[in-house]
TrEMBL record:
It is an enzyme of class 6 (ligase). Its EC number is 6.1.1.2. InterPro entries: aa-tRNA-synth_I_CS, aa-tRNA-synth_Ic, Rossmann-like_a/b/a_fold, Trp-tRNA-ligase, Trp-tRNA_synthetase. This is Tryptophan--tRNA ligase. The gene is trpS. Coiled coil: none annotated. Keywords: Aminoacyl-tRNA synthetase, ATP-binding, Ligase, Nucleotide-binding, Protein biosynthesis. PANTHER family: TRYPTOPHAN--TRNA LIGASE, MITOCHONDRIAL. Belongs to the class-I aminoacyl-tRNA synthetase family. SUPFAM superfamilies: Nucleotidylyl transferase (SSF52374). It comes from Nonomuraea corallina. GO terms for molecular function: tryptophan-tRNA ligase activity.
Length: 320
């Protein structure tokens, strides 16, 4: 089947290995086969925080992360929310297709509210999954490579596509999620690895920073290292990180460490991560800010062209 791929990230900080194994690796694979769109979700930043002064900086860094992992702007349309106003126009009819109770029982939204530093929860917190439906459907996306936290959001998009088609005639495909090798990587503190929770190994961190972060990771005091996700989640998480980087099963790595304890586990994990990220970190240095700006300008132009066509179709289907 011919697919169109769409996915994206908020420019809230450097991308980390959770992003890599959750979604980026799939995007790099898919870009050779299908038309691929990658969204810099800048409007989504204000869901749970004031717009940081460094937003432009964050956007540039995100572009550099993309280039570093091997996204190719000749194949991929990289664009930003705020450059495509048609997305906001799609949001309006889409909002009419979901109920307030559907929006308020979204488990990912609940988790984000629980971790938010802001006291008051914004209306956007409940409606951004609908905005995401516009992000995916404007290009008639059919395949969405994401981490597991995104599954409830993708369900909102699927519901909206189905209901729109039922009410106004078929315009949209019903897209599917594509989960990565590790659909949800834990952070070094045991919660979801997130760029804004200070618990992540950034792709762009130095080798020393990586070593320091892993050294601080919580483990336990047992000497014998075993892979037991249920009873020793933090030890298991380090083994999982090393396993993803080395392409070897985590239980095999645990056997190899044996009675080496947490220090041997952390040493092995640090080396695995640094070896894995070395070529990515090297490639990052081969690109600069001016190049990132040009790529985005071209992507914005292409995305907007596509969005205008879909919005016309939507208006015609609705009889406007
Ligand atoms: P923030 O804390 O600002 O929300 P984030 O780390 O959650 O940042 P997002 O920009 O919200 O990152 O998500 C971008 C993509 O990366 C989504 O597809 C999401 O599913 C995926 N992703 C984020 N964190 C992880 C993780 N820990 N493991 C696997 N995939 C992840
Ligand atoms: Mg997030």
């Amino acid at each position: 089947m011919a697919h169109t791929v769409l996915t994206g990230d908020r420019p809230t900080g450097p991308l980390h290995i959770g992003h890599y194994f959750g979604s980026l690796a799939n995007r790099v694979r898919l870009q050779d086969r299908y038309p691929t769109y990658v969204l810099v979700a800048d409007y989504q930043v204000i869901t749970d925080r004031d717009l940081p002064g460094e937003i432009q900086r964050n956007i540039t860094e995100l572009l550099l992360d993309y280039l570093a992992v091997g996204l190719d702007p000749a194949k991929v349309t990289i664009f930003q929310h705020s450059a495509v106003p048609e997305l906001n126009q799609l949001l309006l009819p889409f909002l009419s297709l979901v109920t307030v109770s559907e929006l308020s029982r979204n488990p990912t939204v609940k988790d984000e509210i629980a971790h938010s530093s802001q006291k008051a929860v914004s209306g956007l917190m409940f409606t951004y999954p609908v905005h995401q439906a516009a992000d995916i459907l404007f290009c008639k996306g059919t395949l969405v490579p994401v981490g597991k936290d995104q599954l409830p959001h993708l369900e909102v998009t699927r519901t909206i596509a189905r209901r729109f088609n039922e009410r106004y005639g078929r315009v949209f495909p019903v897209p599917e999620a594509m989960l990565g090798d590790r659909p949800l990587l834990q952070g070094l503190d045991g919660g979801k690895m997130s760029k804004s929770r200070g618990n992540a190994i950034a792709l762009s961190a130095t080798e020393d920073e990586t070593a320091a972060l892993i050294r601080k990771a919580r483990t336990d005091s047992e000497r014998l290292i075993t892979y037991d996700e249920e009873n020793r989640p933090q030890v298991a998480n380090l083994l999982m990180i090393a396993s993803l980087c080395l392409g070897r099963p985590p239980a095999e790595l645990a056997d190899e460490i044996g009675y080496g304890g947490a220090s041997a586990l952390k040493r092995l994990t640090t080396d695995a991560v640094n070896d894995f990220l070395r070529p990515i970190r090297k490639r990052r240095k081969e690109h600069d800010e001016a190049e990132a700006r040009e790529i985005l300008a071209e992507g914005n132009r292409r995305a907007r062209e596509r969005a205008v066509v879909t919005l016309d179709e939507v208006r015609a289907a609705m009889g406007f």
